[in-house]
Design a protein that fits this description.
The chain has 2 helices and 11 strands, in the order E-H-H-E-E-E-E-E-E-E-E-E-E. By secondary structure, the chain is α+β, with helices and mostly antiparallel strands. The protein has a 7-stranded mixed beta sheet, covered by helices on one side. Strands 5-10 form a two-stranded antiparallel ribbon. The chain is globular.
């Protein structure tokens, strides 16, 4: 099986070493960190994010996930299509992990953010996939208040939704 990915760190390379420009290296990790931090801080200036459409919500979550993993020393790869269960592949110390990215602006009647764990589609909106039936290692979640969670899939027991309340507090990560 051939896996086709784009390695995100190549997009942030500042200088090429050697005779092969198709194999860039990051010479200035210090600068990369501050560029990503500035982008993240600019996004975090507003109190709450407003998602007008689902595509915006997904793009925001994916962007924050890439920033989070990149600034924490991971090599981030993005699949070329969306037919697989995961949105990102991250690698650190030779260990690969698959990540499903979710973002939410939806709150319950108790004012707690809630994330859908199932995918629906077709003309009748029929459910075709749930997180617990997928081949992913972690779920990266961004809520509209810019709080970020990294939850191991093995910890998720619900099929349709997860509430981001007291039980999930231990999975919050800092951007």
């Amino acid at each position: 099986m051939v896996v086709k990915t784009i390695v995100v760190r190549n997009l942030f390379s500042f200088e090429y070493e050697g005779s092969n420009p198709s194999l860039p290296t990051i010479k200035y990790k210090f600068n990369l960190y501050f560029i990503l931090q500035a982008i993240t801080n600019k996004c975090l200036e507003e109190e709450i994010m407003h998602f007008n459409i689902n595509k915006e919500k997904g793009n925001s979550g994916l962007g924050m996930a890439i920033a989070y993993f990149s600034t924490n020393g991971y090599t981030v790869s993005i699949p070329l299509n969306d037919t697989q269960d995961y949105d990102l592949v991250v690698e650190k110390d030779g260990i690969l992990k698959t990540i499903q990215v979710k973002a939410t602006g939806c709150k319950t009647k108790n004012n707690i953010f809630q994330v859908a764990l199932k995918s629906c589609g077709g003309t009748k909106g029929k459910e075709y996939k749930t997180i617990i039936n997928t081949n992913v290692d972690y779920i990266f979640i961004l809520d509209a208040e810019k709080k970020v969670y990294l939850i191991p899939k093995s910890e998720i027991v619900n099929k349709s939704t997860i509430n981001l309340g007291k039980r999930t507090e231990k999975y919050t990560v800092n951007m």
